[in-house]
């Protein structure tokens, strides 16, 4: 009889933090930094909405933030395959810190305008082109392959904890001391993540097998795209991700719309709404971390649940129903995205890790400008509820088609 004990769910949830010092340093630094980032995002969206009374202007600022990714994001993968991921992140985090400091300075001196916020959002967007794929690759290098799914899910807990704490703190600060303090706190919050990256031990990172890079960036990019969309295990997840990301993951725009157009609340109410969404997202991330490996049915169930939850939010005119809908939206959002992220990384070969991470980040982030503009204009035209119903229904359709494609692939006999 074997004496081995089964791994308990709680032990499995935090396995990567216990086993890997480099991952622990990356995780700890981002905990504080991401709270500051979400605090700044919430403050910017609310300030623009108050200055202009236009959801379309919030959508435009979001488009400025993610626009550079839409143009240059796919080049981040080939570049990341050539660069040191840890050093790249150090540089990008320092630049992002300077952007936050500039916003704080402009706010405290009374010179902060929508044009300035759009311009700085554009600069942050350029930083994301390298930062996002570099972070994904660094997570992959910080843990063994068997623990990647757990590490990705734990990384999502950072972002989703920040979705609770950042906007909640933002609502209080906006109502009491103003946006400048939100931006200053974010600038200071970058220091721990930079220090953690510097302290990581490169010799303890798990190297990826990389082919010799003799081709041009464009040729490498083309190879990565062909690999992703000609590999059956990657094709369906990326197509579903494209639909969901384009229409459903524009929370920088949709959450202010819930606060201002559906519930007609103030800055504190906006912070609470964002916190409820973040609470669901955090629970989803912790649930994902307990799973032994990502499964296609879990991924598609997350997409389906996300779509239905958005439809529910669209019907909300009272805080309780909106809160339930947003909590479920956050939960399904994280289940879906963490499962998709871990799945495509595990199914990609080492030499394509940077390009697959970049493609995932590109679809996840780079499609936001078009979606944000669409959602913002729908709400500005008096169709705030439609701005939730339409994305929700499209996510349901994408999940259904993904399920059919998965079932069809399973019935095809292997050669």
UniProtKB/TrEMBL annotation:
Keywords: Cell membrane, Membrane, Transmembrane, Transmembrane helix, Transport. The chain crosses the membrane at residues 58-77, 89-108, 178-198, 238-261, 267-286, 298-315, 321-338, 359-380, 386-405. CDD domains: MFS_MefA_like. Pfam families: MFS_3 (PF05977). Residues 22-410 form the Major facilitator superfamily (MFS) profile domain. InterPro entries: MFS_dom, MFS_trans_sf, TM_effector. The keyword Membrane applies. The keyword Protein transport does not apply. It is found in: Cell membrane. Gene3D superfamilies: MFS general substrate transporter like domains. It is a multi-pass membrane protein. PANTHER family: INTEGRAL MEMBRANE EFFLUX PROTEIN-RELATED, STAPHYLOFERRIN A TRANSPORTER. This is MFS transporter. It comes from Deinococcus roseus.
């Amino acid at each position: 009889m074997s004496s081995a004990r089964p791994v308990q769910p709680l032990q499995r949830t935090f396995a990567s933090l216990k086993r890997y010092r480099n991952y622990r340093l990356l995780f700890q630094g981002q905990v504080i930094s991401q709270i500051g980032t979400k605090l700044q995002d919430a403050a910017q969206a609310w300030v623009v909405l108050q200055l202009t009374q236009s959801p379309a202007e919030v959508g435009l600022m979001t488009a400025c933030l993610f626009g550079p990714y839409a143009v240059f994001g796919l080049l981040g993968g080939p570049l990341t395959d050539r660069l040191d991921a840890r050093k790249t992140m150090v540089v990008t985090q320092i630049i992002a810190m300077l952007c936050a400091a500039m916003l704080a300075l402009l706010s405290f001196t009374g010179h902060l305008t929508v044009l300035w916020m759009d311009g700085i959002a554009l600069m942050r967007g350029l930083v994301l082109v390298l930062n996002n794929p570099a972070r994904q690759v660094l997570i992959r290098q910080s843990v063994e392959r068997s623990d990647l799914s757990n590490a990705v899910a734990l990384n999502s807990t950072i972002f989703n904890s920040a979705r609770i704490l950042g906007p909640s703190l933002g609502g209080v600060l906006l109502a009491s001391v103003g946006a400048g303090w939100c931006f200053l706190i974010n600038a200071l919050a970058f220091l721990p993540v930079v220090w953690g990256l510097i302290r990581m031990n490169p010799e303890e990172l798990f190297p990826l097998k990389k082919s010799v890079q003799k081709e041009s960036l464009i040729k490498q990019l083309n190879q990565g795209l062909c690999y992703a969309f000609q590999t059956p295990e990657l094709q369906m997840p990326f197509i579903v991700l494209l639909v969901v990301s384009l229409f459903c993951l524009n929370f920088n725009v949709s959450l202010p719309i819930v606060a201002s157009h559906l519930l007609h609340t103030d800055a504190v109410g906006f912070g609470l709404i964002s916190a409820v969404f973040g609470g669901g997202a955090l629970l989803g991330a912790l649930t994902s971390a307990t799973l032994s490996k990502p499964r296609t049915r879990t991924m598609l169930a997350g997409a389906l649940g996300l779509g239905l939850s958005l439809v529910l939010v669209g019907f909300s005119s009272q805080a309780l129903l909106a809160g339930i809908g947003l909590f479920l939206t956050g939960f399904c959002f994280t289940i879906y995205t963490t499962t998709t992220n871990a799945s495509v990384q595990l199914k990609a070969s080492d030499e394509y890790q940077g390009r697959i991470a970049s493609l995932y980040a590109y679809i996840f982030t780079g499609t936001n400008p078009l979606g944000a503009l669409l959602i913002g204009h729908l709400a500005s035209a008096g169709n705030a509820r439609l701005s939730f119903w339409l994305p929700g229904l499209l996510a349901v359709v994408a999940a259904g088609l993904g399920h059919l494609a998965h079932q069809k692939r399973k019935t095809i006999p292997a050669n």
